[in-house]
C-alpha cells in the first residue's frame, strides 16, 4: 500500500489551484447570485485543458490518468470554484464526453470529443426522468427504430447543462419488456427537431449550473447515433456512476479544504471577549472536525480513481461507500463553517454559505444516500 | 499510489492468523472471566507463539517506524480476533518494547528487548498519575545516589501490571522524563488489585505504587525531554487504539450481518428490512473510511511525512468514535440477543468506549489537530 502522489500529479494540482484562484474564483460570487452560467470561466477551463484532461491527446485531450483528473477537480474546489461550475464540468466531461469516448465509434469520437474537450461544445447526460431517478429500470422515455432512424419520445428531469448543451447522451428504453437490458444510449444534438428544453429549474445550490427538463417529441435521430450496442445502456450508465463518485466528488473534498482555510484565517482574525476566537475550544473542535472529515474522505475518493487507473472495470462497493460518506458526512463540516463565522457565514459575500448550499447536493445527486445504502448492503 | 497490500504484508497476516487455530481461539473465548494468573498464562502462550512470526519485532521504537504500515496490516487482524489480547500484546511489544529499543541503552535493556521480541516477556508501562486532591502532597520523589536511583511514585491504569515480568515506569526528573525498569515483585513496588472496567475485561489493569524503590543505574534511562518521550508513547498508543477500533468494527459488522441474515421477521430475514440493511451499510462505510485513514496515517509514519502526527490524531479520533457508533448500531440490529452478557456485540459495545478515552482523548486530539490546522493557515 502506498499513498504517494507522483511529483507530476502534485505539480499539476498546484497549477490548477493557482489558475483557478486567479482566473475563476473571483467571478464565482457574481454568477452564483445571478444564477448564471459563467461562459468565460468555462472557456478558460477548456483552454487550460481541464475539460478533456483524461482523453487522448489526438482527440484534443491531455492524456492524463484518472488520479490526475481527480486531483484537478479537487483543486478547483480548493480554489473556491463553486459547485455549480464543477458540476457542469463533471456532467460535461465524465457523464457525456467520457461515455461517447468509451462506447462510441471512431467516427463519433472524432466528431464529438475534440469539441467537448476544448469546451467549444457543452455536453450533458439525460438519464433521470420525472418518474424515474434512482430506479433506472423504470425509465419511460422510448426509442423506437424506424428504418434509418430512431424516434425518441419522453422527457428527462434535473438535467445538468440541459439548457446549454450542444450534445446530449440520452438513455431510453428500446425494449420495455427487458428491464435493464432494454435500455440503450443515444447521442442527440441540439437543434434536432422534436428535442426541446422545456424549463429551467431554480435551485438551492450549485446555482451557476443550469438544470433543465428535456422533452423529446417524435424526435428523429439517425440510426448511427445509437451509442455502443443496443441494450447496453444500463451498463454504460453504471460506468458513469464511478465518475460520479470519484471525479465528481473530488470538488466537495476541495470545498472542505477551502472552508478549512477560510475558517482558520477568520478564527485567527475575529476577536471576541478580548482574544481571537481561535483560542476557544468549541471553535477549535469545529476546525478539527473539518480536517478529520477531509482526511477520512480523501482516501475513499482516491481509492476509486486508483481502481480505475488499474483498469478495474466496476468498483461499485468502493464508489458507493465514498458517495455515502461524502454525501452524508460533508453536511456537518459545511454547517460548522457557517456556524463558526456566525453572521458573516450567513452572508453571501463570505462564500461559506454558498459552499453550505452547494454541498447539500452531495447526498442527492448521482444517486441518493439511500440508494448507496441499498447498493452497499447488497454488495457487502 | 497503490491500495493493495504487498505480498509480504499478506504473508505477515497469514503467519499471524496461523497462530490462532481452533484450540487457541477457544481459550480466548473465556478471556473476560480469567483471573490474573490465567491471563498471564494465556498471554504468555500467545506471545510465545507470535515470537517466531516476527510480529513482535516490527515497528518497535522510533527506529522501527518505517515498518509501521506493514505492521498495521497484521494489527487489524489480531485486533479482530481478541481486542484484550491485542492490547496486552501491543503494550508489551510496541510500548514497553519501543521504550527499551528507542530509549534504553544498556546490555540489560537489550536482553529484555530481545526477550520481548521473541515472546518471552510480558511488559507494562506506567505513565498516568492519579488525580491529586487539592492540598494533598504528591508522593513522587526521585533522587540519584551513587550508582542507583531511589524513586517513589503513584501510577494509575497500568495495563498488564498484574501479569507483567517487567514494568517501565516513567518518572519526572526536574521537568524531564526518566525511565526506570522495575520488577513487580521488587521491594517497594506494589501492584494494586486488578481494576474492574466497563470493557476490555480480558485485560489486566491496575495501579502501581513505588515507595523508595532502589533501581540500579543500569536500569535507569534518561532524562529525556518530555515531548520526545511522550510524543513517542502517545503516537504509538494512538495507532494501537485506532487499529483496535478498526478490528472491532470489522468483527462487529461480520457478526451483525450474520445475525441479520439468519434471523427472520415477517417471514423474511431481517437483513431484507431497510432499517437493518441501511445500518449495515453505514457501519461498513464508517469501517472502511476509518480503515483507510488508519492506513494512510501508518503510511505517513512509515515514510516520515510532515503531517504524520496530525493524521494519527485524525485516525484515532475518527476510528474510535466510529467504533462506538458501529457497536451501537450492531446492538440495535441484534436487539435482545446483543444485550445479553457475554454476547460478542455486548462486549464490543463496552469495549468501544475505551479507545476514545485512552491514549490521546478525543477532546485533546481535536485541540492538537486544530492547532496544526491554524498553524498551516497563517
How many strands, which pairing sense, and closed or not: the largest β-sheet of chain A? 4 strands, mixed
Task: State the CATH topology of the largest domain in chain B.
Answer: Butyryl-CoA Dehydrogenase, subunit A, domain 3
Q: What separation lies between the terminal Cα atoms of chain B?
A: 30 Å
Largest sheet of chain B: 4 strands, mixed
Largest sheet, spatial ordering of strands of chain A: 1-4-5-8
Largest interface: A-B, 44 and 49 residues
Class based on secondary structure composition and strand pairing of chain B: alpha+beta
The tally of strands of chain A reads: 10
By CATH, the architecture of the largest domain in chain B is named: Up-down Bundle
Question: How would you describe this protein?
Answer:
The complex is a heterodimer of chains A (380) and B (378). By secondary structure, chain A is an alpha+beta fold. Chain A has helices at 7-23, 25-34, 39-48, 66-79, 83-103, 106-118, 233-244, 250-269, 281-309, 316-329, 331-340, 342-345, 352-359, 369-379; strands at 123-126, 142-146, 149-160, 167-173, 183-189, 195-201, 211-222, 226-227, 271-272, 275-276. Chain A has a 4-stranded mixed sheet with strand order 1-4-5-8. In chain A, strands 2-3-7-6 form a 4-stranded antiparallel sheet, with helices on one face. Chain A is globular, with a radius of gyration of 21 Å. Chain B is an alpha+beta fold and 378 residues long. Chain B folds into 3 domains: 7-122, Butyryl-Coa Dehydrogenase, subunit A, domain 1; 124-224, Butyryl-CoA Dehydrogenase, subunit A, domain 2 (Beta Barrel), CATH 2.40.110; 227-377, Butyryl-CoA Dehydrogenase, subunit A, domain 3, CATH 1.20.140. Helix content of chain B is 56%, strand content 16%. Chain B has 11 helices and 10 strands. Chain B has helices at 7-19, 22-29, 36-50, 68-81, 83-103, 107-118, 226-262, 274-302, 308-339, 344-357, 362-376; strands spanning 123-126, 141-145, 148-159, 166-173, 176-182, 189-191, 205-216, 220-224, 264-265, 268-269. In chain B, the strands form 3 sheets. In chain B, strands 1-4-5-8 form a 4-stranded mixed sheet. Chains A and B meet through helix 8, helix 9, helix 10 and helix 14 of A and helix 8, helix 9 and helix 11 of B.
Amino acid at each position: 500500500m502506498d499513498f504517494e502522489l507522483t511529483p507530476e500529479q502534485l505539480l499539476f494540482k498546484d497549477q490548477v489551484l493557482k489558475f483557478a484562484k486567479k482566473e475563476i474564483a473571483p467571478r464565482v460570487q457574481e454568477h452564483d447570485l445571478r444564477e448564471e452560467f459563467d461562459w468565460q470561466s468555462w472557456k478558460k477551463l477548456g483552454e487550460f485543458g481541464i475539460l478533456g484532461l483524461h482523453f487522448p491527446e489526438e482527440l484534443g485531450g491531455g492524456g492524463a490518468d484518472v488520479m490526475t483528473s481527480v486531483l484537478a477537480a479537487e483543486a478547483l474546489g480548493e480554489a473556491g470554484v463553486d459547485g455549480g461550475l464543477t458540476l457542469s464540468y463533471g456532467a460535461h466531461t465524465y457523464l457525456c464526453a467520457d461515455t461517447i469516448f468509451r462506447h462510441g465509434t471512431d467516427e463519433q469520437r472524432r466528431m464529438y470529443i475534440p469539441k467537448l474537450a476544448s469546451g467549444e461544445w457543452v455536453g450533458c447526460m439525460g438519464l433521470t426522468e420525472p418518474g424515474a431517478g434512482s430506479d433506472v429500470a423504470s425509465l419511460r422515455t422510448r426509442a423506437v427504430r424506424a428504418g434509418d432512424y430512431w424516434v425518441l419520445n419522453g422527457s428527462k428531469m434535473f438535467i445538468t447543462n440541459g439548457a446549454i448543451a450542444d450534445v446530449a447522451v440520452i438513455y431510453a428504453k428500446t425494449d420495455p419488456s427487458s428491464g435493464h437490458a432494454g435500455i440503450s444510449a443515444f447521442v442527440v444534438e441540439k437543434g434536432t427537431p422534436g428535442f426541446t428544453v422545456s424549463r429551467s429549474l431554480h435551485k438551492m445550490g450549485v446555482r451557476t449550473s443550469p438544470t433543465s427538463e428535456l422533452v423529446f417529441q417524435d424526435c428523429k435521430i439517425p440510426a448511427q447515433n445509437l451509442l455502443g450496442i443496443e441494450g447496453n445502456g444500463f451498463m454504460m450508465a453504471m460506468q458513469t456512476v464511478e465518475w460520479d463518485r470519484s471525479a465528481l466528488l473530488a470538488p466537495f473534498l476541495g470545498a472542505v479544504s477551502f472552508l478549512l482555510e477560510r475558517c482558520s484565517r477568520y478564527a485567527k482574525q475575529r476577536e471576541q471577549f478580548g482574544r481571537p476566537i481561535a483560542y476557544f475550544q468549541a471553535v477549535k473542535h469545529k476546525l478539527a472536525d473539518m480536517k478529520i472529515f477531509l482526511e477520512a474522505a480523501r482516501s475513499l475518493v482516491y481509492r476509486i480513481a486508483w481502481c480505475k487507473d488499474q483498469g478495474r472495470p466496476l468498483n461499485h462497493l468502493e464508489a458507493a461507500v465514498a458517495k455515502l460518506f461524502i454525501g452524508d458526512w460533508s453536511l456537518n463540516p459545511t454547517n460548522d463553517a457557517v456556524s463558526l463565522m456566525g453572521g458573516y457565514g450567513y452572508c453571501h459575500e463570505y462564500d461559506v454559505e454558498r459552499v453550505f448550499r452547494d454541498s447539500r447536493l452531495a447526498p442527492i445527486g448521482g444517486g441518493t444516500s439511500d440508494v448507496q445504502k441499498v447498493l452497499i448492503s447488497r454488495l457487502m | 499510489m497503490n491500495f493493495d497490500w504487498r505480498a509480504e504484508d499478506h504473508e505477515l497476516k497469514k503467519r499471524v492468523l496461523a497462530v490462532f487455530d481452533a484450540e487457541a481461539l477457544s481459550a480466548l473465548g473465556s478471556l473476560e472471566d480469567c483471573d490474573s494468573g490465567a491471563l498471564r498464562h494465556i498471554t504468555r502462550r500467545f506471545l510465545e507463539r507470535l515470537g517466531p512470526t516476527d510480529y513482535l519485532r516490527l515497528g518497535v521504537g522510533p527506529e522501527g517506524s518505517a515498518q509501521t504500515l506493514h505492521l498495521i496490516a497484521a494489527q487489524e487482524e489480531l485486533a479482530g480476533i481478541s481486542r484484550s489480547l491485542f492490547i496486552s500484546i501491543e503494550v508489551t511489544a510496541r510500548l514497553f518494547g519501543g521504550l527499551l529499543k528507542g530509549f534504553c541503552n544498556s546490555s540489560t535493556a537489550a536482553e529484555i528487548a530481545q526477550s520481548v521480541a521473541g515472546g518471552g516477556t510480558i511488559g507494562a508501562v506506567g505513565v498516568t498519575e492519579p488525580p491529586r486532591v487539592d492540598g494533598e502532597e504528591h508522593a513522587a520523589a526521585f533522587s540519584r545516589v551513587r550508582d542507583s536511583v531511589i524513586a517513589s511514585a503513584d501510577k494509575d491504569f497500568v495495563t498488564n501490571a498484574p501479569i507483567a515480568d517487567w514494568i517501565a515506569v516513567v518518572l519526572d526528573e526536574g521537568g524531564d522524563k526518566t525511565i526506570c525498569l522495575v520488577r513487580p515483585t521488587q521491594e517497594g513496588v506494589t501492584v494494586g488489585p486488578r481494576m474492574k472496567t466497563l470493557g476490555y475485561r480480558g485485560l489486566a489493569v491496575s495501579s502501581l505504587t513505588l515507595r523508595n524503590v532502589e533501581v540500579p543505574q543500569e536500569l535507569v534511562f534518561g532524562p529525556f525531554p518530555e515531548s520526545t518521550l511522550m510524543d513517542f508513547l502517545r503516537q504509538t498508543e494512538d495507532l494501537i487504539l485506532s487499529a483496535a477500533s478498526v478490528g472491532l468494527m470489522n468483527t462487529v459488522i461480520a457478526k451483525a450481518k450474520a445475525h441479520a441474515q439468519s434471523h427472520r421477521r415477517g417471514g423474511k430475514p431481517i437483513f431484507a428490512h431497510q432499517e437493518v440493511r441501511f445500518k449495515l451499510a453505514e457501519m461498513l462505510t464508517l469501517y472502511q473510511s476509518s480503515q483507510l485513514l488508519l492506513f494512510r496515517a501508518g503510511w505517513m509514519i512509515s515514510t516520515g511525512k510532515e503531517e504524520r502526527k496530525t493524521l494519527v490524531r485524525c485516525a484515532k479520533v475518527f476510528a474510535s468514535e466510529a467504533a462506538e457508533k458501529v457497536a451501537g448500531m450492531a446492538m440495535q440490529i441484534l436487539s435482545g440477543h446483543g444485550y445479553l452478557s457475554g454476547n460478542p456485540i455486548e462486549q464490543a459495545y463496552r469495549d468501544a468506549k475505551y479507545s476514545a478515552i485512552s491514549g490521546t482523548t478525543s477532546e485533546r486530539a481535536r485541540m492538537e489537530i486544530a492547532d496544526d490546522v491554524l498553524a498551516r493557515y497563517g
